[in-house]
Amino acid sequence: MAEQKKVQEQDVNQLLKVRLEKLADLQTNGNDPFQITKYEVTHHSQEIKDGFEELEGQTVSLAGRMMSKRVMGKASFCNIQDVKGNIQSYVARDSLGEEAYKAFKKMDIGDIVGLKGEVFRTKTGEISIHAAEVTLLSKSLQILPEKFHGLTNTDLRYRQRYVDLIMNPEVKDTFIKRSRIISSIRKYLDGQGFMEVETPMLVANAGGASARPFETHFNALDEDLKLRISLELYLKRLIVGGLERVYEIGRVFRNEGLDTRHNPEFTLMELYQAYTDYNGMMDLTENLYRHVAQEVLGTTTINYQGIEMDLSKPFERITMVDAVKKYSGVDFHEIHTLEEARDAAKEHNVEFEERHKKGDILNLFFEEFVEEHLVQPTFVMDHPIEISPLTKKKPDDPEYVERFEFFMNGWEMANAYSELNDPIDQRERFAAQEELLAQGDEEANHTDEDFLNALMIGMPPTGGIGFGIDRMCMLLTDSAAIRDVLLFPTMKSLDK
């Protein structure tokens, strides 16, 4: 095996040497492809196929990467791949001329070429281009992986996404869909009167979520700063300023683990709407998900890893207490003290820490017994106050807050509140968070005095929500891992 690998490496080195020699020869003869600055493209591959009836017999020009080549004496075939797909070209010496045909024969798989010619259909029925000109636009000095072993190594695919996109059409399709998903979200929200804004990534106080931040140092001010973990507190300041409906789609950063659903930097969308509550956010979420699925997939039925999820029906709405009772048999309406909650946890083998209060233990029950069952679209409402420091209390039950999490496929897809706008209550919640920080909880929030000042100015009743865009993209593209929907996921350095 080792000997075979050594021979293979020698073969590759020889082929790379040949490509460098070809480039040197081109440059010596005044044909350096890297000196070409532009090429006139009239059509893409799929446009030619789709418009064949109108384009047959017409001259077109396209550009892309040569993915295959069959040289057969005086006539050859090659396949050109561009952003829309690929198309075959018939390249004949009589059409190109002697010298140009010789130059074509020296071109390699992976070279980027411009191709001009007439659209026709071959005897076998394939729509093709009869080349009149083939121009080398960029020389590929590296060999595409399929030549030897295919690009199947997932680690290599993530590190060299540019090669992955060339070799695997379904990967390109995933990222085209991702772009369409985000475009569709924007179109829907803009149509609902929302305004897209941008807020700081470098912040003195990383608040708005329970997460450990990344820290950095700004030399010019000689100040330590953090990368944002959430978009919330700045967007709420804009609601105070009177903008009424705002949203932001942007990267946030959390200094946490890596797995199939978590990457330390990911795309979050948060939106805030004045004069509504978490019920309004539920309606918006249902309508948004249906709109995006219909526009991107052409259907409101999602098939993910063999599981079908139906967005056309009304999404289920259930309280956290009722969900825990449904799947574990434990009714937290009957549990009134911390000791009773601890006893229930011990009885059901739910592990908890000394610092956990009754509401924390309810949430642990939810995570243990409920989440995996929430496959169809479900809103889990009315969370305990202990795990919701920025949310309005339920007027008739102050142990709980007007919050929901949206679940599909057993995953949390969104998190929404009737936003807390009482500055006195908010200061008390921050004080509780400061206590947790003092006890060593690295995910607790610091008090944000400027945010409290904004609340003192006055914030209207507001509904807010945060959507995990990457998970949404996973579901809508049937991608097994978050890395499959991030063009450049975080990877451990190879030299470590």
Provide an overview of this structure.
By secondary structure, this protein is of the alpha+beta class. The protein has 2 domains: 2-149, Nucleic acid-binding proteins (OB fold (Dihydrolipoamide Acetyltransferase, E2P), Beta Barrel), CATH 2.40.50; 167-315 and 376-485, Bira Bifunctional Protein, Domain 2 (BirA Bifunctional Protein, domain 2). It is 36% helix and 26% strand. The protein has an 8-stranded mixed sheet with strand order 6-10-11-20-19-18-15-14, with helices on both faces. Strands 1-2-3-5-4 form a 5-stranded mixed barrel. Strands 7-9-8 form a 3-stranded antiparallel sheet, with no helix packed on it. Strand 18 (403-408) and strand 19 form a beta hairpin. Helix 8 packs across helix 10, helix 8 (169-191) packs across helix 16 (469-477) and helix 9 (232-240) runs parallel beside helix 15 (449-457). The two termini are 27 Å apart.
